[in-house]
Design brief:
heterodimer, A: 267 residues, alpha/beta, three-stranded antiparallel β-sheet, 9 helices, globular, B: 551 residues, 26 helices
Chain lengths: 267, 551
């Protein structure tokens, strides 16, 4: 049995020593079935990174595992040189829109304020400053007029903007976004990508799970081609090649899936 | 005959009416066992005479049908039950419902006070925690938890053979948590889904509990009264110690929710995000389950195992219908829970031995029913009313539009439109046209000529008519010119859109269509000036420069 090579792309060395995200030999399993194998990634600062791969490639799993939402089987992750738990406030998160119940009795403002909760810590209530920050973030995604609406009255694109505003309210340096472009209108999509570029200009690092290949090429500085392992990771122009995409999306990884299934049944 | 002797133990067989045993409906046996037990074997001697006469007298007239006889017999039994109690128990000197109510409201009785305070406390706690159960979609978990506590109640009782609140509380809490732990364990180790596991564990634990309770009731020794009350609840059985315990749990729940509101909120809404910002979501979940177990256990005494989950869910569900904010939902749910608790305590007090739980749940259900029907935003009545007024408005607008079309058809000569013209235009009967013009008149949009055959639009009506026609034609033009829809496809669409276009959208349309003046079918689009000017005998536009570009 031949295990996949850890990473085929060149690892970009950080210029200033502070690495936003370093993943080393990360393996993640769902119900004992491995879905990610030996992931090695070092993400440099100030980059907009797209995570691309077919369905079931483990894109969401990767970012969830990095943030400790899913347990890690082996390997380690460092955020700005420290374990995730020690650097919580430097990480912002935009989950998939479908992951929550949009009939929940909260207003848009309440949701955005949740972005401040991590900084508040236990037992403390949001202050006026937190509200001001939340309002600014809503303004940035042009959702301030909706601040007092209940979230179920929003369209898909508006819901996504609210999630984005919540992540902005986290005031983090590293962002993970799970399919922020899924099911949004074209206007929202371009507004979001503009915002992402703006964040990048400010030196933030962003990892975005993305489903749509044609736009991926234009949107991102770097691409992480993922299919249970890292197929390639590097600047978009180097990685977005026919061979590598073929390798990512083509059916060449059946052996890996079979082994994963075997692992599940043995244990 | 055997039945007769069994039910009236001291009654001589010959003295019983022949055939009575066959005729006696047995259906009244559905009454809770406690009810019948209390009523029959302890028949006081003074009431026995009445018991023999009354049913006999009621049943003797041959003209009564079988059903009526059964019914009257049932009623007689109930009446008897009340009167027997009055005769039997010294402490219950009043038999009258009004007097009972008075006793309840004056709160002279310490037991009444305990029952009321206890019911209020449990209502508040259940409402608060129930809100989180509802928004977390854990309603079935609450149900399973409440059924799982029964074995714990029985074992707590067996511990020192008395109804010591503390041992029962500990036993029940442990059993409840054990039940939820069992659910979690089965769910994690098998591929069964949560609802299946919940249903199974719920029934399993409940069965163990029923077995234990039955066993306790058949024990020869010990003070076992009251264990059966845990099934359907009896607020009157609440003691001072119970109230103390309830108070502690209520304060604990309120404090936990006030202090950790933010944590409960974010973990309920988006647990993935809560985890990503470092909140201990497991711990918060377990804390909530513990509080829930406490709430269930303190509610047991008054509501009973079977119905306690309804006290968690129903007030919260009613609150959920009425508000869009979590903190208001918490407040409303606890108020509703409190009201339901009070109602249950009151109604069960009116009659002796009436179970409290069902009345509380009925109270909560009544609140839910009111919220469902009359809720200001999501209520059925309000929605029906909105729908109706919208339909009425659309019909009025369509009538006005038809009047405009008739006037347009004769180049706006003459101001009145006859009902016949209107009816022809709308392809309706004269009666319908008359009714619609009457509707317009009531809204101040039109006046009717004295003989009732001519309709004149008022200035307001004219403006409305112009607006609708304008919306319609602008939309048609937009569809044909911008969306490239064929001209013969656009009418039906515009028929719907014309009623919902807001001013802002219309301004936007005008701008995009460069203030066009003709629709795709070559008819004039009424201008703003036409609306302002009001109706005149001349065709719109000839005076105001209609047909020229504005702006």
């Amino acid at each position: 049995m031949q295990l996949p090579p850890s990473s085929t792309a060149a690892i970009v060395q950080p210029a200033n020593g502070e690495v936003p995200l370093e993943i080393h030999d990360l393996t993640v399993a769902y119900h004992k079935k491995p879905v990610l194998w030996g992931i090695d990634v070092v993400v440099p600062k100030g980059k907009l990174v797209g995570i691309v791969g077919p369905n079931g490639a483990g894109k969401s799993t990767l970012i969830k595992a990095v943030m400790g939402i899913l347990p890690i089987s082996s390997g380690w992750v460092k955020i700005f040189g420290k374990p995730f738990k020690k650097n919580l406030t430097r990480v912002g998160y935009v989950p998939q829109r479908e992951s929550v119940d949009w009939d929940f009795p909260v207003s848009v403002m309440d949701v955005v304020l949740m972005g401040r909760y991590g900084r508040l810590g236990l037992l403390k209530r949001p202050t006026k400053h937190d509200r001001d920050v939340a309002r600014e973030c809503l303004e940035k995604v042009k959702m301030l007029p909706y601040a007092n609406r209940q979230i179920s009255n929003l369209s898909g694109g508006q819901q996504q903007r609210v999630f984005l505003a919540r992540a902005l309210a986290q005031e983090s340096d590293l962002y993970f976004m799970d399919e922020p472009f899924a099911g949004v209108d074209a206007a929202t999509e371009s507004a979001i990508i503009e915002l992402l570029h703006e964040l990048k200009e400010k030196g933030k690092t962003l990892l975005v799970v993305h489903h749509d290949l044609p736009t991926a090429r234009n949107y991102f500085d770097m691409l992480l081609l993922l299919n249970m392992r890292v197929v390639a990771f590097g600047p978009t122009e180097e990685v977005f090649t026919y061979e590598l995409l073929q390798k990512t999306y083509g059916g060449r990884l059946t052996i890996l899936s079979e082994v994963a299934e075997a692992v599940r049944q043995k244990s | 005959m055997r039945q007769t002797t069994k039910i009236f133990p001291n009654t001589n067989g010959e003295r019983a009416r022949p055939g009575r045993s066959q005729r006696r409906p047995r259906r009244w046996l559905w009454l809770p066992e406690t009810f019948s037990n209390r009523y029959i074997p302890r028949f006081p001697s003074s009431a026995r005479g009445r018991a023999e006469q009354q049913p006999g007298r009621l049943c003797s007239p041959r003209k009564l049908t079988c059903e009526t006889r059964r019914l009257t017999f049932l009623i007689a039994l109930f009446a008897l039950n009340f009167s027997c109690h009055a005769a039997r128990i010294g402490d219950l000197s009043e038999s009258n419902i009004g007097e009972q109510a008075l006793r309840f409201f004056t709160l002279q009785d310490p037991s009444v006070r305990y029952a009321l305070i206890g019911s209020i406390l449990l209502g508040i706690t259940c409402g608060l925690l129930g809100s989180f159960i509802v928004v977390r979609k854990m309603a079935l978990v609450g149900d399973a938890l409440s059924h799982a506590v029964l074995p714990g109640v029985a074992l707590g009782f067996l511990w020192n053979m008395s109804k010591d609140p503390l041992t029962i509380f500990i036993g029940a809490t442990v059993a409840g948590l054990l039940g939820t732990a069992t659910v979690a364990a089965i769910k994690q180790t098998t591929r069964l889904k949560e609802d299946t596991v919940l249903g199974m564990v719920l029934a399993g634990f409940f069965s163990i509990g029923i077995c234990l309770v039955t066993m306790i009731q058949h024990l020869p020794t010990g003070n076992k009264s009251g264990v059966d009350k845990f099934l359907f609840g009896q607020a009157a059985a609440i003691s001072a110690e119970d109230v103390q315990l309830m108070g502690i749990i209520t304060v604990l729940s309120i404090a936990a929710i006030v202090v950790f509101y933010k944590e409960f909120l974010v973990t309920s809404f988006d647990s993935g995000f809560a985890r990503a910002i470092g909140f201990p979501i497991r711990l918060i979940h377990h804390a909530l389950m513990l509080l829930l177990a406490f709430a269930v256990v303190i509610a047991l005494q008054a509501v009973g195992v079977v119905l306690v989950s309804a006290m968690l869910i129903t007030p919260a569900a009613a609150a959920y219908l009425l508000t869009d904010r979590m903190h208001r939902m918490l407040l409303l749910a606890s108020i509703f829970g409190m009201l339901a608790g009070m109602a249950g305590a009151f109604f069960s007090f009116l009659g002796p031995s009436l179970p409290t739980g069902p009345f509380m749940v009925l109270g909560a259900s009544a609140v839910f029913g009111l919220a469902f029907l009359f809720g200001p935003r999501h209520g059925v009545v309000m929605r029906w009313w909105n729908h109706r007024s919208r339909a009425q408005r659309i019909q009025n607008e369509n009538t006005l539009k038809s009047i405009y079309h008739v006037l347009e058809g004769r180049d706006f000569r003459g101001e009145g439109v006859s009902l016949r013209e209107l009816a022809e235009r709308r392809r309706e009967t004269l009666d319908e046209a008359k009714r619609q013009s009457d509707n317009l008149r009531r809204k101040g949009l039109a006046t009717l000529h004295e003989d009732g055959n001519l309709v004149f639009v008022t200035p307001a009506g004219w403006q409305r008519a112009c607006t609708i026609v304008r919306n319609h034609r602008l939309w048609e033009l937009y569809l044909t010119s911008e969306a490239k829809v064929a001209a013969d496809h656009v009418h039906d669409d515009a028929e719907k859109i014309e009623h919902i276009l807001g001013d802002e959208v219309v301004r936007e349309l005008e701008k995009r269509l460069e203030y066009a003046t003709e629709d795709p079918h070559g008819r004039a689009i009424p201008s703003l000036a036409d609306m302002q000017k009001g109706m005149s005998s001349q065709q719109p536009g000839t005076v105001t420069g209609y047909g020229k570009k504005r702006g």
